[in-house]
Amino acid sequence: MCGIVGYIGKREAYPIILEGLKRLEYRGYDSAGIALYDGNSIQLSKTKGKVVDLENRVNNEIETTGSLGIGHTRWATHGVPNDINSHPHYSNSGDLVIIHNGIIENYASIKKELIKRGYTFSSETDTEVLINLIEDVKKNEQVKLGKAVQIALNQVVGAYAIAVFDKNKPDEIVVAKLGSPLAIGVGENEFFIASDATPFLEYTKKAIYLEDEEMAIVRLKKGVKIRKIKNDALVDPYIQELQLNLEQIVKGGYEHFMLKEIHEQPNAIKDTYRGRLNANKGQVRMAGIDDNLEKFLNANRIIVIACGTSWHAGLVSEYIFEDLARIPVEVEYASEFRYRNPVITENDVVIAISQSGETADTLAAIKLAKSKGAFVFGVCNVVGSSIARETHAGAYTHAGPEIGVASTKAFTTQITVLTLIALKLAKEKGTLSHSEFHLHLQELELIPDKVQKALQSDAHIKVVAETYKDAKNCLYLGRGFNFPVALEGALKLKEISYIHAEGYPAAEMKHGPIALIDEQMPVFVIATKKGHYDKVVSNIQEIKSRKGKIIGIVTEGDTEVKNLADHVIEVPETLELLTPLLTTIPLQLLSYHIAVMLDKNVDQPRNLAKSVTVE
Ligand code: F6R
């Protein structure tokens, strides 16, 4: 969490950093700050609140000159979000300035030592401790900034992406990474530093992604020098050509990123299967699977690890893998898996799912699985992300940047990738007949058009949203492949509208949650024609007889649920195991409209961040 940006070059740093922070605001938005250096004096301004609050403050508070600068947008870990805890932080002498994304776990003991040596602290942050540790090393060891950063980082435990500059070195920024992402944009006589490449896309398409435990000294004239933090070994910079475009990271006429991303799903799903799925030839080709087919075919079981929405996609895949490929699957919260001494063997295949590719718990779970000899396969959206690099092989979702904090297109594209893998394995294992295999490929190819059709119910969904926007609690029910969609629908509602919502397998309702049902309780029931339809209809009757309000997500043309429900929202018909790709669409739109009607910040819900790089 937290976004960091830096610039050193010939241009004015301020507009570059400000715009960069706006693009990185999805990573955290509790507070923001900036430090600019023109070679004479450092101008620093920071504030609780969003980047626009920072902009207003800067306009009244500081000069915005200087072609070296660093900026930060924060998701608070140590210390409440307030002006003082915001980054950047000065060292005691006022010579060094730092921004930091991550957590220094042993900061308390270091702080104690530094206090004994006379250092004082104005904030409650671990970051202010780190910059004073660097200052202390620099003074005591009589070394330059880069060396001092290296020595200090060898004393800390935790995670970080940092950028530091020294008032006495106006042509240099020192950066380092462990656990949190850090990219360096390489321009003509100018360099950019950022948590991802979006802040510098219009300036350069050349980027270096630091690996864990690497640091770089970025000098205006001498360029980028990368070293290993532990053993000081020099590393050859690997400069990548970015594929990302500026158009992909703007709202493009939509009111919110979330709405844009919901509407992008037809194309995103197409992009996910493009080049992989060929229904005419009856082929699924995925390099990551083709190259490791034996591992998958010989696997005792598949263990899926993920968090949040990605975990829900994993849960859908459990049903799909078991149904199509007859491979036992376990789906684990990465945060639980990593701490409970799980039984993993070399015959297990672990699939790690992550949109951002940076989720700390998922990353740690991957490392644990690898250490126990499992083969780990990544399903990520962000190309070159830490999880993509840490896994043995993988498949990207190719959904394009997802900026709205609530995940939408990541979910449907993850399910698409996982379905392709299951189909491929089913074909290889012979667990699906030739004709069924073909049918699944053809149906999957039709999904983007059907998603488009589901999106056309938007106006009707808005009416439903208006009806239930003032509810205090909601239930979401689904069975089989659509049980995880119920969980996902509830998550979408609670995270952006702050309405309490629970997802349940429909049949579990009678084991407890049915006690909640009265005339105030909206119950969203996924009741598509296939998939235990009759059983779900019985569940609907149970709700109706207790006066609950029923909103059915049904197959086009359904009449039975329509007769029972207060509202229905139709989705096109498809194969049962592909229904989650359609039933999730109205639930996303519903949450979106309710949140807008309640005047909530849809793209940046309170307390959340897009990329959870702390455990
Ligand atoms: C919910 C949401 C989160 C993420 C979770 C995992 O809308 O976005 O629950 O799904 O933080 O993130 P990734 O997929 O980046 O690992």
Please summarize what this structure is.
By secondary structure, the chain is of the alpha/beta class.
How would you describe this structure to a colleague?
By secondary structure, the chain is of the alpha/beta class. It has three domains: 3-248, 4-Layer Sandwich (Glutamine Phosphoribosylpyrophosphate, subunit 1, domain 1); 253-455, Glucose-6-phosphate isomerase like protein, domain 1 (Rossmann fold); 456-601, Glucose-6-phosphate isomerase like protein, domain 1 (Rossmann fold), CATH 3.40.50. 37% of the residues lie in helices and 23% in strands. The protein contains 20 helices and 27 strands. The strands form five sheets. It has an eight-stranded antiparallel beta sheet, covered by helices on one side. The protein has a seven-stranded antiparallel beta sheet with strand order 5-6-7-8-12-13-14. The chain has a five-stranded parallel beta sheet with strand order 19-18-20-21-22, with helices on both faces. The mean pLDDT is 94. The protein binds fructose -6-phosphate (F6R). Fructose -6-phosphate is lined by residues 307-310, 354-356, 359, 362, 406-407, 491, 495, 612.
Heteromolecules bound: fructose -6-phosphate
Between the first and last Cα atoms, what is the distance in angstroms?
Answer: 10 Å
| Average pLDDT for all residues | 94
Specify the CATH class of the largest domain: Alpha Beta
Architecture of the largest domain in CATH?
A: 4-Layer Sandwich
Structural class: alpha/beta
Number of domains: 3
What is the CATH topology classification name of the largest domain?
Glutamine Phosphoribosylpyrophosphate, subunit 1, domain 1
Question: Major sheet, described briefly?
Answer: 8 strands, antiparallel
Q: Tell me, briefly, the overall form.
A: globular
Multimeric status of the protein? single chain
Q: Note the total helix count.
A: 20
Radius of gyration: 26 Å
List the uncertain runs: none
CATH homology superfamily of the largest domain: Aminohydrolase, N-terminal nucleophile (Ntn) domain
